[in-house]
Amino acid sequence: MAARIELSTEFLAQLERLSLICRRPVRGWAAGDRASRRPGRSVEFCDYRAYGVGDDLRYVDWNIFARTDRLYVKLFVDDEDLCLHLLVDASASMDWGAPSKLQWAARMAAALGFVGLASLERVGVGILRERLAEGWAPVRGRGHINPLLEFLGGLEGGGSTNLNEALASYAARAQGSGLVVLVSDLLDPAGYEAGLKALLERRFEVHLIHVLSPDELEPELAGDLRLVDRETGETRPLSIDAATLRAYRERLQSFLAGAEAFCRNHAIQYQRVASDVPVERLVLQALRGRLLA
User: Fold this and answer.
1) Is the same domain home to 243 and 220?
2) pLDDT tens-digit profile of 100-149?
3) Angle, helices 193-201/163-173, rounded to nearest 10 degrees
4) Does a cis peptide bond (omega within 30 degrees of 0) precede residue 99?
């Protein structure tokens, strides 16, 4: 993989005009630059509500009390500190295809990270293998764009997959919640569901980009072959004919439908894509209105 992710000047100009969409109110750790839908205590008034025990008397509207003999407190628009968490599966199974799924995932993370940093949001990265392998602590500001592109460009695939443990570890370590974008092939025999649930339990808004290579989606194999598992090294002889390919496609469709149904049932945004689809097309078309505005 190249030492730095390169995005075209034209694409960067288009990314400059985008911003992140976060539908779930999140509470950050610093003053942010976006208006939250959560009532807060900034200077911009938005509404009233009835006084409740424990409310700050400084925000009681005494003029309304004088007219109605009822207590109401003022609500204000709060500034929200959004953190974008980019989680990239870098296990050995991702290092497959042309371009590899990992190369594609790194470019996708670079594009989304650029949008976040250019919009003055905080952006962090977690690299997932058998466990949470390494990371990029959340930072804010355009000055971090080039270091982020270099970090992502240096990723190498390797190791086995344990998405449940890696995702749960990231959820436990993260300070505050925010917006999570996971890019993975989900090829883990132990599954991924518990890890995604761990993120949801920490009140992250989760988007899953499910990337598979074209030859995984439509294999062009025939004859007597010996298949090698990229992560375990296990070999398996296999005679591939029309019936074998039909059975593979049926299991693949069951796997894909299961992932999509799980995400739909848990309010996770799901996007499936082949690694030969340009990142630019996915960002500017499929993700507009869902993750980006």
Assistant:
1) yes
2) 999 999 999 999 999 999 998 999 999 998 887 678 899 999 999 999 99
3) 10
4) yes
